[in-house]
């Protein structure tokens, strides 16, 4: 079906108390407006029309990658006036769905159901009953329960204030309706705005039937007006993500302490402990465990991997059966082959660690290519940076790097080479040999006396 979608996003969002336009505040790591645009894209093939105004350039710049038709509303004179700005971009034969840039959690399925259930030529609107309807436009019904009007909070009589059915602000207008009616709106109300809600009463007078679609999920229709509501919807969103994953076979120890700020794809029998944050795109295989207080960003993890507490992983590829952490840091370009172990206080960057190799304690491995079954001792550092350029370290299969070794790159350590502890290696170490490089002799001084405490001079 041809359909135009208009997203209203020109308001300032004063109650956010922010220099950032409201719809750029993030939920689940994505700007609010991006959620709504994605929803729109799931319903219509044409890019949605976004009405913007307040801090327009900031908004357009931040969201330049979104495929939308931007339309400016220079002065914010109300929701009706906002929608008027979209008219030149709406073909007469298209019905129109109106969404808000600050209502991020409406589901595509809900909107499709709403559209499908709105009878042809009727005007559809989504309503919801709220325990606390204060602040919202109220739905006015006649004796036969037909919707006849929407009245804004500031224009309500005391009796009408008791009504709990509110206007969500999501509408489905039949073709050519807005073209005929928007220009008739007046601003003679408490806020002196052109209220989009006034078209309801116009439709009633023109014998256009109004279809109220009552929905039960408050979160799906809730808007973000202040930071408390943003936090509430963030948690609602995270619980939604957690529930989806749990249905697919992921154990989440506490959905209240679980955050996906991007996309998480997980296999079966994955266990995620508390306070784990996923950012960007993360893919996890089957039978993995993710320890508490871990941050994982843009990473692919194979089957049977164990990530222990307090690890920070960014831009890594981790093959099956690796063990990482606790307190490990994997930076972009880290590739771990299967069964490798990365232990505590180890940082790895732009390096390949071969199958079954171990870097278990207190090391920095950067710009390195480490073979299979290599053991890298505690405190080993690849000195990859000379202050100007980065250089590569290559370590062959089965090498053993003694503790506290400095490998000054560019450097090669051959297969099966053995580097003695505390060496500073500046030239290539041959395969299958022991290479030692440290102060030649160890001396002991027989008559050495432990320094004694200086006696304090008495002041005369
Ligand atoms: C609006 C509805 C109200 C409904 C509520 C649901 C009207 C008159 N009232 O009230 O019935 O219960 O939403 O949340 O429509 N906007 C513009 N340009 C403008 C004014 C607003 O683009 O000139 C945009 C805002 O950015 C926002 C949306 O329209 O995304 C709603 O505007 P807002 O001022 O928040 O309307 P409410 O008073 O909440
Ligand atoms: Ca609002």
Q: Which shape, going by the Cα principal axes?
A: elongated
Q: What is the count of structural domains?
A: 2
Number of separate strands: 39
Assign the CATH class of the largest domain: Alpha Beta
CATH fold field value of the largest domain: Spore Coat Polysaccharide Biosynthesis Protein SpsA, Chain A
How many H/I helical runs? 8
The secondary-structure class comes to: alpha/beta
Per DSSP, what share of the residues sits in E-state strands of 2 or more residues?
25-35%
Q: Which architecture name of the largest domain does CATH use?
A: Alpha-Beta Complex
Described by strand count, sense and barrel closure, the largest sheet is: 14 strands, parallel
Please compute the radius of gyration using only Cα atoms.
Answer: 32 Å
The CATH superfamily of the largest domain is known as: Spore Coat Polysaccharide Biosynthesis Protein SpsA, Chain A
User: Which molecules are bound besides the chains?
Assistant: uridine-diphosphate-N-acetylglucosamine, calcium ion
Q: For the residues shown, what is the average pLDDT?
A: 95
Question: Could you tell me how far the N terminus lies from the C terminus, measured between alpha carbons in angstroms?
Answer: 102 Å
Estimate percent helicity: 10-25%
Unreliable stretches covering 5 or more consecutive residues: none
């Amino acid at each position: 079906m041809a359909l135009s979608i208009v997203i209203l996003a020109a308001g300032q969002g004063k109650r956010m108390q922010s220099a950032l336009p409201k719809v750029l505040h993030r939920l689940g790591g994505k700007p609010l407006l991006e959620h709504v645009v994605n929803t729109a894209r799931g319903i219509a093939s044409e890019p949605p029309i976004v009405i913007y105004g307040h801090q327009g350039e900031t908004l357009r710049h931040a969201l330049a990658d979104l495929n939308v038709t931007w339309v400016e509303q220079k002065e914010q004179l109300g929701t009706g006036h906002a929608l008027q700005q979209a008219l030149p971009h709406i073909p007469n034969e298209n019905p129109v769905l109106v969404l808000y840039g600050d209502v991020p959690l409406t589901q595509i399925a809900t909107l499709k159901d709403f559209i499908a259930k709105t009878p042809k030529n009727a005007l559809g609107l989504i309503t919801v009953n709220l325990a606390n309807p204060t602040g919202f436009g109220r739905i006015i019904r006649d004796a036969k329960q037909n919707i006849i009007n929407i009245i804004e909070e500031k224009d309500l009589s005391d009796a009408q204030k008791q009504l709990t059915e509110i206007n969500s602000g999501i509408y489905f207008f039949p073709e050519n309706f807005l073209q005929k009616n928007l220009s008739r709106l007046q601003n003679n109300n408490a806020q002196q705005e052109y209220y989009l809600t006034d078209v309801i009463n116009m439709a009633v007078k023109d014998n256009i039937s109004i279809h109220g679609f009552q929905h039960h999920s408050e979160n799906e229709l809730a808007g973000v007006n202040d930071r408390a509501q943003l936090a509430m919807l963030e948690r609602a969103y995270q619980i939604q993500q957690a529930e989806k994953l749990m249905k697919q076979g992921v154990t989440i120890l506490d959905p209240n302490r679980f955050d996906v700020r991007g996309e998480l794809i997980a296999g079966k029998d994955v266990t995620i402990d508390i306070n784990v944050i996923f950012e960007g795109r993360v893919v996890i295989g089957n039978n993995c465990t993710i320890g508490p207080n871990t941050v994982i960003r843009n990473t692919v993890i194979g089957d049977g991997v164990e990530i222990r507490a307090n690890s920070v992983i960014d831009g890594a590829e981790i093959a099956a059966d690796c063990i990482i952490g606790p307190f490990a840091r994997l930076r972009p370009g880290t590739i771990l082959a299967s069964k490798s172990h990365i232990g505590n206080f180890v940082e790895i960057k732009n390096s390949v660690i071969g199958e079954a190799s171990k870097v278990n304690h207190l090391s920095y491995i950067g710009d390195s290519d480490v073979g299979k079954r290599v053991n890298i001792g505690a405190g080993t550092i690849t000195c990859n940076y000379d202050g100007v350029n980065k250089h590569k370290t290559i370590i062959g299969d089965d090498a053993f790097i003694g503790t506290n070794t400095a490998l000054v790159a560019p450097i090669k350590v051959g297969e099966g080479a053995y580097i003695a502890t505390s060496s500073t290696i500046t030239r290539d170490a041959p395969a299958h040999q022991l290479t030692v490089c440290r102060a030649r002799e160890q001396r002991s001084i027989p008559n050495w006396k432990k320094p004694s405490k200086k006696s304090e001079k008495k002041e005369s």
